[in-house]
Amino acid sequence: MVPHLSTALTGPLLGLEKKFLAEMPNIEQWFRSQWLDYAAPFYASVDLRNAGFKLAPVDTNLFPGGFNNLNPDFLSLSVQAAQVAIEKVCPEAYRLLIIPENHTRNTYYLRNVVALVNVMRQAGLEVRIGSISPEVTEPTEFNTQDGHTLLLEPVVREGNRLKLKHPELGDFDSCAVLLNNDLSSGEPEILQNLEQSLIPPLHAGWSRRRKTSHFSAYDEVASSFAEMLGIDPWLINPYFSCCSEIDFKAREGEECLSLKVDEMLTRIRQKYAEYNVDQEPYVIVKANSGTYGMGIMAVKSVEEVIGLNRKARNKMSVVKEGLTVSEVMIQEGVPTFETLNESVAEPVVYMMDHFVIGGFYRVHTSRGVDENLNAPGAHFVPLAFEDPCTLPDCADSPETLPNRFYSYGVVARLALLAAAMELQAQDSMAQLVA
Amino acid sequence: MVPHLSTALTGPLLGLEKKFLAEMPNIEQWFRSQWLDYAAPFYASVDLRNAGFKLAPVDTNLFPGGFNNLNPDFLSLSVQAAQVAIEKVCPEAYRLLIIPENHTRNTYYLRNVVALVNVMRQAGLEVRIGSISPEVTEPTEFNTQDGHTLLLEPVVREGNRLKLKHPELGDFDSCAVLLNNDLSSGEPEILQNLEQSLIPPLHAGWSRRRKTSHFSAYDEVASSFAEMLGIDPWLINPYFSCCSEIDFKAREGEECLSLKVDEMLTRIRQKYAEYNVDQEPYVIVKANSGTYGMGIMAVKSVEEVIGLNRKARNKMSVVKEGLTVSEVMIQEGVPTFETLNESVAEPVVYMMDHFVIGGFYRVHTSRGVDENLNAPGAHFVPLAFEDPCTLPDCADSPETLPNRFYSYGVVARLALLAAAMELQAQDSMAQLVA
Fold it and tell me: How far does A318 lie from chain B, in Å, by closest CA?
């Protein structure tokens, strides 16, 4: 059950991990005081890359799917964290409406909704699922790939409240609305100006969110954390930059892209020299909004972004829901040195409120260590992230799984904190506009 | 790993459990709003008795030992709850001083301290153990029965702060002092008027606490909860009464005792008739302060408390630390209908802050269903209290373990809430006096 971690490469990360373990009380105190200033998102997942010489977040998802891939042995941990999260949102209420993605034909995604609903129900909430899909016009049961059924009901807006109306189950008026829909296609009118708490808020959706805003906030977090620990922030932070006014189809923006890619490869090369990393630097070019591993490519030289062929340009030009890509983030590529059964693996860490509740390895049998693994063909291996280690000396060896996971939890929480800052800044902006 | 619960007896409790499960959202909402008014104790354990026809707490320990008996698989749940508890006590600090019981020769008790320290360290605290035992005059390593070592250091009072001073480890000045010492022998001067947060507070110790105060508060909690659910509070609440001015050695107070025992047996008999319970009522007479299962007897008729022989009187007259018993609580005996490998068993539920973090069965191979199991010869079986149950319909069958444990968690938290009310009332009193 415990995934085997390849520890053949033992670079500076072991040093970093040792540092994290030794400084655990300082780190936890630092997080405690940060959470006094910033409200943690309700939930989030963070994709990490562990390069051996550095450990960094590469993507932070504020509408996490994949709850079904968490280790069921740790369900109670999710339930407890959900209780804390709910105490903040609805201390005196008990009905929760969950709005999932519209793609009701993705039976794997629906399985995630089943798992999420289960966590919330176990936390003591009355949960129903409201769809904003135009295809769901009456209460309908859907099946997951493994035989669970899920009742989706069309949401009804009454004044500024979202409700459900079911002939047998009756009306449902919830205290809060939990979005598991990343709003890639925009902010539907039906969700605007609600009386109910909408979590996460509308501006957390991909119609407004920019990856570069997140990583700007992460720059701040990583610097402050690295300063506290006395380490180089680069060890936990991938470089990034941005090109706007990109149009892949019209070959617009190539110049910016090649300039930024070149700059970044040079910066990475310098760091690799400083840390004696004997690998070829690469960068990831990805759409500044959006998810699902669409609109993303790995690049090792400037030549690769000049004169892209039609197929590559098409692939880069659209993301989920057919949206056109007009801004890209250029991100330092962090190779993974983790393998699971000889396949390349990267950890994904799940959090609810400010607690780490689990994670899994995203594993790809046909991708390389420097490629995006969030692609068709990936599979998931639940992470048993804490060994029943009650020996007082089990914290001594950083090669063991619980300790490695502590570092993962630290870096994932740094990204969570960045998301909290990012959302808080957007909140202030949204209030200024309103 | 999952203990087998005998469910041969399926009395009204199944009805109660069904009720709890059906009303889970209401119950959890009720708890959430209670915790807005009352601060949960830092930690507690509650002894429950499940009679089949009723499920009730019989003892609430505010200085729980036995952390080593919790299921190690759920360590992460304790750690998460400890993080919440610590956020309230020391949001911006990270040093915790734990003061254990003085009986350093009890290697099993010390094993509990090792487990407790481990939880707190995993929660990210720097923990050291300070002893107030006159026998610990310099930093000393003690061994547990299973080969762990534990460093106990004598506490040093400087002004109104408790500190540790170790020639190599250096000085230790903590934000809070966590007591795992129930103060049976009084409130030592060294712990009085501390600047540091003392948790639980001095008045939670057995030198001031009375079981009858706890169960008075529990009366309130149980009535309010039962009213919310529309059930008879007796189903979750054992009758109790009190005799003061008892002196077993001098045969003083026998009259009060026999009167109260008689009254209570009559009341139980009426309830048994009402619920068609075909069992012989009994009461438990126990010292109104104190723990460790000392000063306690089970009684089925008035005759048993009149003319106690010398041996019985001696046994009843002293509790832990040799204190004389001058007040007793007469408590309705709740038989247990649970057995584990044909031995009588009762669940003990552990909580930290307002979260259930685990539990175990106290099992006694040579005691009956109507006897106190907290006695020499008892052993402990960790409770796996939540099955990885992610099926949406797994809540339907109340016979399964996770569901049974939900009821245990509910009743244990009711007792926790009573403890919170009890401590809050004492806080107010203490402030009036000061």
Answer: 36
**Residue B62: CB atoms within 10 Å:** 24
- Distance from the B86 Cα atom to the nearest Cα atom in chain A, whole angstroms: 9
pLDDT tens-digit readout, A320-359: 666 677 889 999 999 887 776 677 888 899 999 999 998 8
Closest CA to A434 of A193, A206, A215: A193
Q: Which residue has the higher pLDDT, A70 or B381?
A: A70
Say how many residues make up chain A: 434
User: Do B86 and A32 lie within an 8 Å CB cutoff?
Assistant: yes
DSSP state of B82: H
Looking at the complex, report in whole angstroms how far the Cα of residue B96 sits from the nearest Cα belonging to chain A: 10
A123 Cα to chain B: minimum distance (Å): 8
B264 in Cβ contact with B239 (< 8 Å): yes
Is B25 within 8 Å of A126 when comparing Cβ atoms? yes
d(CA A160, CA A173): 11
Between CA B141 and CA B123 the distance in angstroms is 23
- pLDDT of amino acid B384: 55
CB contact under 8 A, A84 and B84: yes
Ramachandran angles phi, psi of B279, nearest 5°: -135, 165
Nearest beta carbon to residue A392 from set B73, B118, B355: B118
Write out chain A residues lying below 8 Å of B86, CB-based: 32
Measured over the CA atoms of residue B56, residue A81, residue B73 and residue B5, the dihedral's sign is positive
Q: Which residues of B touch A413 (CB under 8 A)?
A: none
Smallest CA–CA distance from A384 into chain B, residue: B73
Nearest to B91 among A32, A81, A391 (CB): A32
Nearest-CA distance from B89 to chain A in Å?
11
- Which residues in B lie closer than 8 A to residue A173 (C-beta atoms)? none
Distances, alpha carbon B365 to alpha carbons A406, B6, B349, B377, in Å: 41, 15, 20, 8
Contact flag B77-A77 (C-beta cutoff 8 Å): yes
Contact B148 A93 (CB under 8 A): no
User: pLDDT in tens for each of the 434 residues of chain A?
Assistant: 233 333 334 445 567 888 898 899 999 999 999 999 999 999 999 999 988 889 999 999 999 999 999 888 778 889 999 999 999 988 878 899 999 999 888 999 999 999 999 999 989 899 999 999 999 999 999 999 899 999 999 999 999 999 999 999 999 999 999 999 999 888 999 999 999 999 999 999 988 899 999 999 999 999 999 999 999 999 999 999 999 888 888 888 889 999 999 999 999 999 999 999 999 999 999 888 876 556 788 899 998 888 777 787 777 777 666 667 788 999 999 988 777 667 788 889 999 999 999 888 888 877 877 777 777 777 877 765 444 343 334 444 444 445 667 889 999 999 999 999 999 998 887 777 76
The model carries a pTM of 0.88
Say yes or no for a CB contact (<8 Å) between B73 and A391. no
Residue B74, C-beta contacts closer than 8 angstroms, at least 6 positions apart: A76, B357, B358, B384, B385
For residue B85, which of B292, B350, B291 has the smallest C-alpha distance?
B350
**Minimal-distance CA residue of chain B relative to A115:** B390
> Could you give the ipTM of this predicted complex?
0.82
Rounded CA separation A414/B191 (Å):
39
For residue A200, say if its preceding peptide bond is cis, omega within 30 degrees of 0: yes
Please give the residue of chain B at the shortest CA–CA distance from A151. Answer: B392
Put simply, the answer to whether B35 touches A83 (Cβ < 8 Å) is no
User: Which tokens sit at A99?
Assistant: 């709005």
- Cβ B33–A92 below 8 Å, yes or no? yes
CA distances from A176 to A116, A127, A143, A393 (A): 15, 10, 26, 44
Percent helix, strand, coil in chain A (nearest 5)? 35, 25, 40
